[in-house]
Specification:
The protein is α/β, with parallel strands linked by helices. It has 11 helices and 13 strands. Helices cover about 25% and strands about 25% of the residues. The site of NADP nicotinamide-adenine-dinucleotide phosphate has 29 residues, from helix 1.
């Protein structure tokens, strides 16, 4: 099957190249980069030294000969490209993550084209993803936060997600939060009450959501600590059993008997969920961790591709 990546020179693009160049069912045909067009991938990434893959600035005709294209580009680019594409599309940006184009327009400020997509969280929408030509891959904070809260949502009054992410979450284009001068020996809270991912999370949760992200001085990995105010008394054991049941057919979600750490999942496509403590105020605390570049982006995108094409869900990701 022929695959391509637009935005192949960025952080998530690099992860996609690593996964797809080893994927048994995929031939990587287009690695689009405007800046590195004509250069071999090995000039940018030493680990590809025995590989002759090249970046190019591909035409629409070349992209349309593919079976699937991954859009690893900034918000707004997919809105422009998708109406012109004939192949299946997995968009890593926020452009096709919203049920309502009005909400997307309010949160992101781009006019939406109303093309319908499946929300690419396989643990929730596998059947929809299977039938879809266009998948909007979820945000990284959203993936960790939805996975840690979906099974308990109906018992929750409100949920506070206290999240930390490695600085690769901000992409490779220089910004305040991915500048080593700012994140070294530091923790940077930002958009403490109205980050855009909050509106994406709220689409799939009945409980009211509050969300604060922080950038920490590590390259990759993301933690969502959920503080869940419960509507009624329930034991921590019962909650944990509910989670095990909810995720029994989800190969990348692990319910663990410890408080998970970022190191447990770096460089993997797993989401690890643990903690499960309830305090005297009937507040449940659960921690989930993912690698923002894999389960939070490129790994999940390949998981979605596997589902869309009827491959083994875990192919290329173990
Ligand atoms: N980083 C994460 O943890 C993460 C997690 C989840 C989702 N995402 C989303 O995934 C997307 C990519 O993120 P990233 O972190 O990989 O970003 P990045 O490192 O900044 O890379 C983005 C790439 O897009 C290409 N690009 C930029 N503008 C373009 C345009 N107008 N047309 C075509 N290509 C363009 C650039 O390549 P050239 O300049 O070489 O063409 C660049 O390498 C973003 O929408 C981001 O929000 C990222």
């Amino acid at each position: 099957m022929k695959a391509g990546i637009i935005g192949a020179s960025g952080y998530t693009g690099y992860e996609l190249i690593k996964i797809l160049s080893k994927h048994k069912k995929v031939s990587l045909e287009v690695l689009n980069s405007r800046i590195y067009a004509g250069k071999k991938v090995k000039t940018l990434y030493k680990e590809f030294k025995n590989n002759n893959l090249k970046f190019k600035n591909a035409s629409l005709d070349e992209i349309n000969k593919l079976d699937v294209v991954f859009l690893a580009t900034p918000n707004g680019k997919a809105l422009e490209l998708v109406p012109k594409l004939k192949c299946k599309v997995i968009d890593l940006s926020a452009d096709y993550r919203f049920k309502s184009s009005k909400v997307y327009e309010k949160v992101y400020g781009f006019k939406h084209n109303n093309i319908k997509s499946a929300y690419g969280l396989p643990e929730l929408f596998k059947e929809k993803i299977k039938k879809s030509k266009l998948v909007g891959n979820p945000g990284c904070y959203v993936t960790a936060s939805l996975l840690v809260s979906l099974p308990i949502d109906k018992f929750a009054k409100n949920i506070i997600f206290d999240c930390k992410s490695g600085y690769s979450g901000a992409g490779s284009i220089p910004s305040y939060v991915n500048n080593p001068k700012n994140y070294n020996d530091n923790i940077i809270p930002y958009k403490i009450s109205n980050h855009r991912h909050k509106y994406e999370m709220q689409q799939y949760l009945k409980a009211k959501v509050s969300f604060t992200p922080h950038v920490i001085p590590t390259f990759r990995g993301l933690m969502s600590t959920a503080h869940i105010l419960l509507k009624k008394k329930i034991s921590a054991k019962k909650v944990k059993d509910m989670y095990k049941k909810y995720y029994k057919n989800s190969p990348f979600v692990k319910i663990v008997n410890k408080i998970p750490e970022i190191k447990d999942v770096q460089n993997t496509n797993y989401c690890m969920i643990g903690g499960f403590e309830i305090d005297e105020n009937n507040q449940l605390v659960i921690v989930s961790v993912i690698d923002n570049l894999l389960k939070g982006a490129s790994g999940q995108a390949v998981q979605n591709m596997n589902i869309m094409f009827g491959f083994e869900e875990t192919e290329g990701l173990m």
